[in-house]
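User: My advisor, Dr. K., asked me to get a structural model of this assembly before our group meeting. I'm new to this, so sorry if the format is off. These are the inputs:
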Amino acid sequence: MKYITKKAKNDKFSTTLINFIFQFKCTNDEIMAFTMLPNMLSFTNKKYNEDDTFAKEKLKRYIMSFGARSQSINNEYFINFSLLIPNTNLIDDDFLESAINFALDSIYEPNIEDDLFKEKYFEREKRSYIEYLLNGYKNVNFIAEKNVLEILDKNGVFNKSKYSDLENIKQLENKDLVDFYNKYIKNIKPKIFINGNIDFDKVEYYLENYMKPLHLKDYKLDFDYDFYFKDRDFIEKNDKSNYYQSILYMVYNVSDYKETDMYILYLLNLLLSSSASDLLIKRLRKKYNLVYTCGSSILIRNGLIIIKANCSLKNIEMAKLVIKDLMLSFKNMDTYKEEVSNIIYKLHLNLERSKDDFFELSSNLINNYFKSDKTREEELNIISNLEKSDIENLANRLNLNCIYTLEGNNE
Amino acid sequence: MNSELFVLDNGLKVFFVNDNNKHTTYINLIVKYGGIDNTFYKNKKKYKINDGMAHFIEHLVLESSCFGDLMENFGKLGIASNGLTGLEKTQFYIDTVDHIYDGLKVLIKGIHNPVINQEIIDNIKKPIIEEKKRSLDNKFSNLYNETFSNLIDNKTFKSVLGEINYLNNIKEKDILTCFKTFYRPENEIIVIGGRFDKNKVLEVIKSTYDELSFENDIVKRINNHKSTVKKKEAIVKTNTGTGRVAIAFKLDSVNLTPYEKLKLDSYIFCFLRSNFGIMSKLNKKMIEEKITTDGIQYSNGIVEGYHYIIIEANTDNQDIFINNILDYFKDKKFIFDKSLYELDKKSAIINLISRKDSIYNMVDPFIENIISYGYEELDTIDFINKLSFKEFKDIITKLNFSNYTITKLINK
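Assistant: The format is fine. Below is the predicted structure of the whole assembly, which you can bring to the meeting.
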């Protein structure tokens, strides 16, 4: 098929999801436009140029939801438009073409006049984002995350803290947004994914009817994965705040991180905070009663484990020691045989569970194209066969990269 | 898809939403005991307990059961689990593709057999106090705690989590009294959705409850049933970038039948969408006059048998926003757009059809129907089809909106 990139026939569910995905590399100066553009294309278009009529037209076409969001992984940037409709066999009306055209109009016929987005919507989106940041700056979790990302940004790998920079959004102009649209969306052919139970030939026909006259350019981007976090001096930073709780972040990076380490890092994260193991909760909450909540996440392309604990100020030093001790303990994986086996079992169950989850099946279809050429079964097989010595080897390469504490003042 | 109800001899109600095409089973054990159930009679003796007890017991039974930590036990079996305490219920769930019957047995037995002593209480209260601090730092928790505290005209109720001072001094005697009063089969329901063998599940439930013992106390809940609100206006100072305001209307719907309550709920939803949603004139006006940037947000529900509506927005022009909303209700300048009503109805039917795709989307609204509305049926297309535009207009126009409470959130 010329226009549909990947499709999955799924008659177990009553809905169909169509994703139109644009992928690109943008510059640091374009990050704000990248963040704001999806909203400019989700609530109005040229034909229905007021948000109330746009919303009503969506209902008329049986569109259950239509929206767009931006997502970045290192220097890969995506804008993903998603159109959710009922399966055509459930509805008597022939709505498929008008629903698809509605989505395509929103992508290719935006609410632009005289080379600018309709001013009142641009202003509103900008003000809305400014208010979002102003509210974020008063939210203890947002502030702590922003500050820790700023520390991690210092060697220039992420640029993640740019998203929460108020000055960046204040400087954004309507023309910047139009330029960004023209450069990355206007003449570009998206990757299109469909999961559901509709006539794919008809969809292909409707897509071709709409898109062929636009003479869209295909794209192929190759991304290099050389963004692994570089070793550098340990940083510790404390800030004070007027919040009730304190937040502790501890970030570990892996020296000489390589692609084959990704699955080991994934397993370590599951050991720390999946319900099949939950080592963080077991130590910090169950054993020492230091926290209400704690967790970990990984930036898999960067070889980073980020541990976060919300706790009282008086418990912070103890929590640091417990986490350090826990991370050192991965050097001997004999201790965690039971947890690893629980995790593998849970992953198998999750694979089974995912068969009931329409949206997970849809995102697997997309991830399988963009992020990994392996199926979930193949990935699970790799994780199940990881050698103890490989995990211990990675544990020996873990470095405590930074500790950040946002201290609350009310005990 | 249909639901089935079984009432056991001990008074427990068991609801099935069976779908063996699914790979998962979603089991909910619900105790009709929530954050607002602080006053009750047990064997004619009146008890008055502080806020936070229902939530404390939720932690206790999960973290200190006869099996130890229940969630840890479930985790080892590959079962997802959690508990949550609301205003009127405490809910425990497990979600599994394997060990269904063992999991169900452990859930029932574990929740009814907590191990309790002072050391355990001291350990459990620490993370609860951390949770409370987290809630104090959250502006939305502060806003809704104040709003619901005023909406529910109960002199003492302030929040489900309770106050730190009380939690620090919580007494074993009170914990046991409340646990024994409310954790009883006649005050519980079990709702199971997804893949399972009905006979086997029923057998496990019956035999497990038979192994448990319960006291034969006569318990009477005290429901205030007050149609009034506690406070007309409140100001909450918290960390926030922009101000926010919530206007909560309490509607006098307590005497309606469960069916009528659910019907009213559907009409309120259509009313809110057409009068305050993205397609409404008022929303457009509020944005164009820069009273709010993101527009009006709205929600509705039911508490203690009363329907409520909350209209809110991020705004630093709080008084202008409030005046606009109150004028709108006072003059009943409501818009009844038949074409929009029909579109909403069509969309409700599509959403209902798609519910069966997910057991959570099937079971969670069903639990809401049972607990909040007393309506022990699944939502159906037939129910939606019976709704009429004329009745919608009549019912909404007759509602009394004079009973409201305003909460203003400002930066401290």
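One thing worth pointing out at the meeting: The mean pLDDT of chain A is 91.

User: Perfect, thanks a lot.
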